[in-house]
Amino acid sequence: MTVQLDDVSVHFGRTCALEGLSLTVAAGETVALLGPSGSGKSTALKAVAGFVRPSSGRIRLAGQDVTDLPPAKRGIGVVVQQYALFPHLRVADNVAFGLRAARKPKAEVVRRVAEMLAMVGMTSYAKRFPRELSGGQQQRVAIARALAIQPKVLLLDEPLAALDAQLRADMLGELQKLRREVPEVAIVYVTHDQSEALALADRIAVMRDARLVDIAPAAELYATPPSAFTASFLGGANLLPVESVGEDVKVAGHVLPGVRSTPGKELLCIRPHAIRLGSEGVPVRVIATQWRGSSNQLTCTVDGLPDVSVRIDLPADSDVPALGAQVSMVLPAEACSLVPS
Amino acid sequence: MVPPLLLIAVLVVYPLALVAVESAPAWGDVLGSVEFREALIRTVQIAVCSTIGCLVVGTFLAVVISFVPFPGARVVASLVDTMLALPSFLVALSFTFIYGTAGILRTGGFLTTPWAVVLAEITFYTPFVMRPLLAAMSRLPRAQLDVAASLGAGPWRVLRQVVLPEVRPAMVAGGSLTLLLTLNEFGIVLFLGAKGTTTLPMLVHTKGIVMFDYPAACAIAVVQIVLSLGLYALLRKALGGRRARLD
Amino acid sequence: MLVWTRPGKALTWIAFAVVFGVLVLAPFVVVIAAAFAGTWNGVLPSNPTAGHLQEALSGDELASLSVSLQTAFLGGLLAVAFGTWGALAAHGSRFGRVADALHHLPIAVPSVVVGLGLLVAFSRQPILLNGTKWIVVIAHLVLMVAFSYGTVAAALQRVDPSYADVAASLGASPARVLWQVRLPMLRPAIASAAGLSVALSMGEVGATIMVYPASWRTVPVSIFALSDRGQTFTAAAEALVLLTATVLVVFTVDRLRGRAVEQ
């Protein structure tokens, strides 16, 4: 089922939580809404779920306008941040909640609950109360509860935010597995964590200040970010101001071989790990070094660009220049892209 | 929305409005009477003294329970919670045995003075000050006190400069609630005050039930309502504390 | 963490014990002791007797207990129902502040004034209730509605709205969300509102004394009558009966809280 947002805005009094969002999520597709807090991503999800009413714009499910439909009539599965498992109901009753609301026959409820709990590996916890579960287990139950009603659309609002780092990595793997279990469901995944978005999403919609900044397939967005914000938010790219001299592009007075100038795009975007140290490049001065286990990260100032610092990731086994050393950085053309400032 | 509000409208707003209407013919007599003026002054005096007493005693007890804990401190704290639900006249009744002419202390005259009412109200309303204070103090990070002590601050300094500023909103909340409740207190005055101390609520009862002078009772009631609500609102505004709830 | 020396602590605790014992605890202990005392002319009561308690549990006084229990249950439970209803309706409504203020009115003004208002309002057409037990029940209902409303409204503030949202997204109708999610999650608050209402109702004296008919005399009114006639020991015994009954009732209601927890 296709989810379609058509110029959707949400205002709370004077504050604008979402401004003119247009977005389509196809059946079987995962779209991540990625952005810092206050970017409007959760509001967009709540609008699709029907928890908040758009001030303008329409929302369609499979082409049918549902903007005025209450959440109960939309048939969308929702997993919220703190999971909101009903504390007075056991795990099995939580999962059965939607089925009972739909007055499904008892036998079907029992069968479906067992099926869902088996899918998320929680069968042996059916009789527990939510407070007796760990964060990761609660999350699985929340997903089982949302999927029990066989939704065609699944909305996940920061499902991993409440978990600690190790568990988050494990659950990320489980979510990838889950995606394969429900191949036809359209998934909207709200997160502020770029690694979750990159791991799970087919397309990523980057949001900022209640607006959509960029939307593109994940790999494309990472490789050639269309905007400075997306470049730095997704993968922490370096942004360097450039001058155009004819067809050539100069950084701090040095021509970058192989990079073609584009009108209106005055920032060079390059990932920290793509920069190498060499003899013929832009001279920089090392002001900090940080060993990160798998890599060494240098922070450098660029001669002639007083307000800019550059982060460079060197392989862990490479020689690390001393603090204060003058080195030369090479910016390979294939790793460079130009974005508007 | 409608049925609960309708209930309040019929059972609270309508009667109070009628009280205001009924009071009209009695205003001149009531405002001019010495009895009324004395009761008004007495009511405010008793309420203010009791509230100050409750704040002093309640703060001391709450500080000890929270920061100088002893075995059984939690039991005491839950006992305090229970007392909130008990009727106030029990205190007044017990005073008959403690301070009465034939009682433990045999301070015969004391029972008939306003100070007996003040003492009884301090006894009964101290838990009302303690409850918000205990809650606020339990939220205060213990590390803050330890750090202050490690920086060389003695107990008094820690109390004055770390604890009290932090729990001030709770003190304001508890204090204004106590002031309101002591202005309105009836049970204690009924049991003790029949022996010499008259406050406004007591006067409402006397005029209304004993003398059947409804207009006068209504006029005094209106003064009482204005006094209670006005003082309470003023206090909340002036002290700028967080919104104190009545419950 | 505040007082670090042993003597300092000991001194603080002694001061605490004296202040708490004499000022807060003693009056309640004295009432209980007096209930069993034949005479009390010194520091300690003398001539222990169960006679006062017997008096307090017979005749008119026993009838008072029955009246108090009926009033407390009827008034208190109606109050909890209406208070909860009011709090749920006011929550998130445009009229929330008005509802808040109106519901707090009965406890912001003296109970005597609430009683006077009811007396004035219901001694005339169109609603004549003066002289019946219903005016007492209504007085209690009005006072306890305020407490119930406050307790439930405070709990509602703490409940995350996403529970109701999620329930709705699972296809539950508003009625189902109310009965199966919102109310069960409020159960602890509703139970403590019920306990508080019943307890406060059992001890209510201000409004009751304004409106009660001779046929419907609650325990506190009886205690006052006894104390006023100089029968202080019997008054103390009846106060003990009131305390015991209140604690029993509150304890029972507390049991009903069950396993549900607020989150």
TrEMBL record, chain C:
GO terms for biological process: transmembrane transport. It is a multi-pass membrane protein. It holds the Pfam family BPD_transp_1. It is found in: Cell inner membrane; Cell membrane. Residues 65-253 form the ABC transmembrane type-1 domain. The chain crosses the membrane at residues 12-37, 67-90, 102-122, 134-156, 189-212, 232-253. The keyword Acyltransferase does not apply. Keywords: Cell inner membrane, Cell membrane, Membrane, Transmembrane, Transmembrane helix, Transport. GO terms for cellular component: plasma membrane. CDD domains: TM_PBP2. Belongs to the binding-protein-dependent transport system permease family. This is ABC transporter permease subunit. It comes from Kribbella albertanoniae.
